[in-house]
């Protein structure tokens, strides 16, 4: 049986589990040095402290939470993407990064080309809150939000420490890249 005791006097702002970390709960972006190396402590990034200074694609807005530059992550990037109502992103892929998407708000559509029938056809996956999408490396796609009044918000996790974004003029089937010339 576990019991919880009241925090010591004067420690109301501190994490009850790590009261010895100076200033642990004082900042919105808890990546400040605490005398411990980045990989010897947990990092708390508050919802209001996401960083919009990350790779972007037209028609959407990405916000980093976890990245190599923010918290010293070595193999993962995580953040949010927002797509306004009646908006489509530009076509893009994420290089060698695997991308996992969790829909939080709205009904975004994820669009890519499939040539399994012998002819490249546009495929649309309409997602709902709670759904997950997996985007393999180098697969060109775009996000669309057909809602007339509802923003689409998704949480993204990538297998690279920074957000890789390669913006494209058009969708294509991997292996059938258009000539650059």
Shape: globular
The tally of beta strands, per DSSP, is 13
Count of separate DSSP helical elements? 1
User: What is the arithmetic mean of pLDDT?
Assistant: 82
Strand order of the largest sheet: 3-4-12-7-10
The run of helices and strands is EEEHEEEEEEEEEE
Give the DSSP E fraction (strand runs of 2 or more residues). Answer: 25-35%
CA radius of gyration? 20 Å
What does the main sheet amount to?
A: 5 strands, antiparallel
Low-confidence stretches: 1-31
Distance between the termini: 69 Å
Helix content: under 10%
Class based on secondary structure composition and strand pairing? mainly beta
List the helices and strands and how they pair.
Layout: E1 29-30, E2 44-45, E3 61-66, H1 68-71, E4 77-83, E5 87-88, E6 91-93, E7 99-105, E8 109-114, E9 121-126, E10 132-135, E11 142-145, E12 152-158, E13 166-168
Antiparallel strand pairs: 1-2, 3-4, 4-12, 5-11, 6-13, 7-10, 7-12, 8-9, 8-11
Structure description:
By secondary structure, this protein is mainly β. Helix content is 2%, strand content 33%. It contains one helix and 13 strands. It has a five-stranded antiparallel β-sheet. A hairpin with a 6-residue loop joins strand 8 (109-114) and strand 9. The N and C termini lie far apart (69 Å). Residues 1-31 have low confidence and may be disordered.
């Amino acid at each position: 049986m576990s019991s919880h005791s009241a925090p010591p006097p004067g420690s109301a702002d501190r994490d009850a589990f790590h009261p010895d970390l100076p200033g642990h709960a004082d900042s919105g972006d808890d990546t400040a040095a605490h005398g411990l190396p980045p990989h010897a402590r947990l990092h708390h990034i508050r919802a209001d402290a996401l960083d919009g200074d990350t790779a972007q694609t037209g028609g959407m807005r990405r916000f980093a939470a976890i990245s190599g530059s923010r918290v010293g992550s070595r193999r993962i990037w995580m953040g949010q993407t927002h797509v306004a109502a009646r908006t489509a992103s530009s076509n893009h892929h994420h290089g060698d990064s695997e991308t996992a998407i969790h829909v939080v708000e709205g009904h975004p559509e994820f669009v890519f080309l499939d040539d399994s029938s012998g002819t490249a056809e546009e495929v649309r996956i309409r997602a709902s809150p709670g759904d997950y999408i997996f985007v393999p490396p180098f697969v060109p796609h775009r996000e669309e939000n057909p809602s007339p009044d509802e923003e689409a918000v998704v949480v993204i996790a990538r297998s690279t420490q920074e957000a890789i974004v390669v913006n494209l003029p058009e969708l294509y089937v991997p292996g059938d890249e258009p000539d650059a010339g």
